[in-house]
Amino acid sequence: MSLSILAMTFFINFAYVTISTIRFMLTMKGYRLLAPILSMIEITIYILGLSLVLNRLDNPINLFVYALGYAVGISVGIFIEDRLALGYIMTTAILPSNSDNDKNLPTILRDKGYGVTQSYGEGLSGERMILEILSPRKHESELYQLIKEVEERAFIITYEPKFISGGFWTKKVRKRQKKLRH
Q: Among candidates 51, 47, 44, 63, which has minimal Cα distance to 1?
């Protein structure tokens, strides 16, 4: 059993699965040029790694190392995608209407460069303010923190829109957010 073959098996599968995970996420977000390019690299690495294992099936450690590379590759791929934080999120914050904080929050969010649509609804305990907030995904945790600082009782739910068109979210808003961050 060669340690160099085991290391190569691990790193080849690690690279394959990391790229595969990122490629899948890019595909889901509609990156039509980058995802196919990554898929070419991905399949080349996959065939190389699989041939290493298939030629050495007599030793179960080879299969274990291959599987370990797969598991670690998925974890690292998800970590990288989280750091890249591509795309946008749509956050709905539902606030109790019996506090002064709910009236301040839309203004605070707009001053920070977020696109905010404000409406009202009826909940179990009465009237609620509903805020629909569009944000780059990389600012998601900052947005949650800001909402919770102003109104700790806020109910927050987030989803990722696939397509955005029109409305307040324009280059002007992105430029304003960039200015505020620097």
A: 63
Instruction: Provide Rg for the chain, Cα atoms.
Output: 23
Give the span between the Cα atoms of 129 and 80, in whole angstroms: 36
What global pTM score does this model have?
0.65
Tell me how long the chain is: 182
- Using CA atoms, how far apart are residues 67 and 10, in angstroms rounded to an integer? 8
Three-point CA angle 100, 102, 104, nearest 5°: 75
- Give the pLDDT confidence of 41-93 residue by residue, as tens digits: 999 998 887 887 778 778 888 889 888 999 999 999 889 888 888 888 899 99
Strand partners for 158: 91
Tell me whether residue 135 is exposed, middle or buried, using C-beta atoms within 10 angstroms of its C-beta: 0 to 12, 13 to 18, 19 or more.
buried
Tell which residue, 48, 39, 40, has the closest CA to residue 20. 39
Helix axes 3-28, 34-54, angle to 10 degrees: 150
Task: List residues bridging with 136 in a β-sheet.
Answer: 88
**E-assigned strand segments in the chain:** 88-96, 115-123, 126-136, 155-159
